[in-house]
Design goal:
This protein is α/β, with parallel strands linked by helices and 179 residues long. The chain has one domain: Alpha/beta knot, CATH 3.40.1280. It is 37% helix and 23% strand. It contains 6 helices and 8 strands; from the N terminus they run βαβαβαβαβαβαββ. Strands 3-2-1-5-4-6 form a 6-stranded parallel sheet. A two-stranded antiparallel ribbon has the order 7-8. It starts with 6 loop residues before the first strand and ends with a strand. The structure holds S-adenosylmethionine. S-adenosylmethionine binds next to β4 and α6.
Amino acid sequence: MQTENEVVVLRLGHRPGRDNRMTTHVGLTARALGADRVLIAGDASNPKETIEDITDRFGGPFEAALTDSHRQLLREWQGVIVHLTMYGLPIQEVETEIHEAHSNGPVLVVVGAEKVPFDVYERADYNVGVTNQPHSEVAGLAVFLDRLFEGRELDREWADATHHVVPKETGKQVEPVDE
Ligand code: SAM
């Protein structure tokens, strides 16, 4: 079920084993940079579990789910669909329109693994390039979300964490969260 103004990331083309790390990073990046949910098409139970473990430890709300009906999701999505691809329009040319669309409803952000089927290009309201150079779904998603939220996601508060990181100039400190 969709909710008002939510930002959902759809990860297409996951290849079990080979893409586990990238798919996990798509989910972790979606979570860290302000999206509400990641939906992973295909058999990606390992990435889903890792994303959920991190959410349990470091907080949410954030949801990870697998889907075997991404075509139906794309068909029925009530809101704007943004497909990130090196072949798309430069993000700096379309971000204002996408902001406006987001202020009126939810956004589905689609990222691929290898080749994304052409019907996704046709269904998307915006095919968006974060540069028109080949790089990665994780990098594209990070830049896109930061532009969408205009940096506000960096100050996000986390709920229901068991642990949090204490920022340090040098060294590592992770502490349990007081009840
Ligand atoms: N030829 C593919 C394409 O359509 O962008 C490159 C595949 S790339 C290994 C995997 C995913 O990274 C793509 O499906 C796309 O979502 C994302 N990606 C790669 N380069 C991008 C760029 N310059 N801008 C936005 N997304 C990009």
